[in-house]
Amino acid sequence: MIANTAPTNRQLKIQSSDQSGQAQPRRIDSHSLMAGQPLLMIEHAGSHYYLRMTRNNKLILTK
C-alpha cells in the first residue's frame, strides 16, 4: 500500500505563514515564469493580460 504524502490543508497553512502567523505570498522567479521569452499571456477571469520583460529588465503588465 502506498502512503499519501501530500500535505494536508493545515500543513500548507503552517508552511505558508511566517513566525508572526501572517500568510506569505507564493514566490516564483521571474525568469522561470517567463521561460526565456519576452512575453507571457496570463488568462484571468475571462480576460487576457500580457506580462512583458523590457530590454531594461523591467516587467510591464498590460490588459
CATH superfamily of one domain: Complement Module, domain 1
Main structural class? alpha+beta
Which parts are unreliable, with pLDDT below 50 for 5 consecutive residues or more?
A: none
At the first level of CATH, the class of one domain is Mainly Beta
| CATH topology assignment of one domain | Complement Module, domain 1
Question: What is the average per-residue confidence, as pLDDT, rounded to a whole number?
Answer: 83
What is the topology, as strand order, of the major beta sheet?
1-2-3
Straight-line N-to-C gap: 49 Å
The global form is: extended
Alpha carbon gyration radius:
17 Å
Number of strands: 3
Give helix % range.
10-25%
Please provide the ordered H/E string of secondary-structure elements: HHEEE
The tally of helices reads: 2
Largest sheet: 3 strands, antiparallel
The fraction of residues in strands falls at 25-35%
Task: Provide a brief overview of the structure.
It contains two helices and three strands; from the N terminus they run ααβββ. The protein has a domain at 37-63: Complement Module, domain 1. The chain is an alpha+beta fold and 63 residues long.
Overview of this protein structure:
There is one protein chain. The chain is α+β, with helices and mostly antiparallel strands and 63 residues long. The protein has a domain at 37-63: Ribbon (Complement Module, domain 1). Helices cover 19% and strands 27% of the residues. The protein contains two helices and three strands. The protein has helices spanning 9-15, 30-34, and strands at 39-44, 47-53, 59-62. It has a three-stranded antiparallel β-sheet with strand order 1-2-3, with no helix packed on it. Strand 2 (47-53) and strand 3 form a beta hairpin.
